[in-house]
Amino acid sequence: MNIAFGKWEFDPMDIENPFPNNDGEVHLWMGDEDRVVPLTLQRYIAKQVKWVNYHEVIGAGHTLPYADGVAGDILKKLLKDQS
Questions:
Q1: Region 7-15: what's the mean pLDDT?
Q2: Of 29, 34, 2, whose CA–CA distance to 15 is shortest?
Q3: How confident is the model at residue 37 (pLDDT cuts 50, 70, 90)?
Q4: What is the Cα–Cα distance from 29 to 20, expressed in whole angstroms?
């Protein structure tokens, strides 16, 4: 899930769980030092949209996939049920 600024034709809070039968997951990764996308926005959406798995990475900024170990953690989450 990629949440960013802009004027959308829908309310992201109205998005329904794309995996109601638990046959998939939605993960949101956020660096707590991101200066481009407000941390408060991501936290708010993650609290409201209960089916989102929120991961806040301490010490990471907007380029959090390049932070130590983060890319590996993301890949492990994405591939854990693919075997």
A1: 82
A2: 2
A3: confident
A4: 21
Q: Do the Cβ atoms of 36 and 45 come closer than 8 Å?
A: no
CA distance 25 to 10: 22
Taking the C-alpha atoms of residue 5 and residue 27, their distance in angstroms, rounded to an integer, is: 19
* pTM listed for this prediction: 0.74
Q: What is the mean pLDDT of residues 40-65?
A: 89
List the structure tokens of 72.
Answer: 């590996």
Q: How far is CA 6 from CA 9, 28, 31, 62, in A?
A: 10, 18, 20, 17
